[in-house]
Amino acid sequence: MTDPVYRRVVIKLSGEFLAGQQGFGIDQPTMDRVADDLIAARQLGCEVAVVIGGGNIFRGVEVSSRGVSRPTGDTMGMLATMMNCLALEATIERKGAPARALSAFVMPEVSELFTRTAAHKYLAEGRILLLGGGTGNPFFTTDTTAVLRAAEIGAEAVLKATNVDGVYSADPKKDPSATRFDRLTHSQAIAGGYKVMDATAFALARETSLPIIVFSIAEPGSIGAILRGAGHGTVVAG
User: Fold this and answer.
1) Which residues are annotated as a binding site for ATP?
2) What is the pLDDT of residues 125-164, one digit of tens each?
3) Cβ contacts of residue 58 below 8 Å, gap of 6+?
4) pLDDT for 113-129, tens place per residue?
5) Residues contributing to the annotated binding site
6) In which element (H, E) is residue 94 found?
7) Whole-number Å distance between alpha carbons of 78 and 238
8) Please, are residues 160 and 212 in contact by the beta-carbon 8 Å criterion?
């Protein structure tokens, strides 16, 4: 078995992906497939933490545009990420692998609070971590959360799982002439305004010297392929 390129990673999953073809909520076959991929990644010998968006359940930015305050809308969105974390935790454990959801919010009846001590403890135990609640603050995306948590727990990279196989000069679904980048620096990603990840996340990754690998999660096994260095994606680093 090929040793993983990275020994500890944070994987950023979009909530929308978990909705599958139904477009809303949680599609259980999709959740099962994601759980299988994460378990396989852990079996490579990699310590795995996951940050999930909440867009399949609730988007704070959208509700804020309809009159709810942005802080309230973002808080509702962060709670949606916890729902996804709990669902994925249950799915992973049903498959016989250990997992643990940690929350940025104090909610003892639901989940243990995220701390670096707790994260290191559960990673050392071989658990797959599900990190919910965003940063615990409004105005920050789950992209930024993924980079922040990666820096906090000493991860070697952030794996950004998307619906395209890397960073493009434009939306490849709308512009056939869009070119794909194999590698970018953090500064180039920020200056280019590429929408695959927000500028705050790229800036924090630059400050903390964290590489970000943007790849497509459409094919089963794609997470493991990236970890083995065999996957197809864009590396944002340096």
Assistant:
1) 12-15, 55, 59, 162-163, 168, 171
2) 999 999 999 999 999 999 999 999 999 999 999 999 998 8
3) 76, 77, 79, 80
4) 999 999 999 999 999 99
5) 12-15, 54-55, 59, 74, 135-142, 162-163, 168, 171
6) helix 70-94
7) 30
8) yes
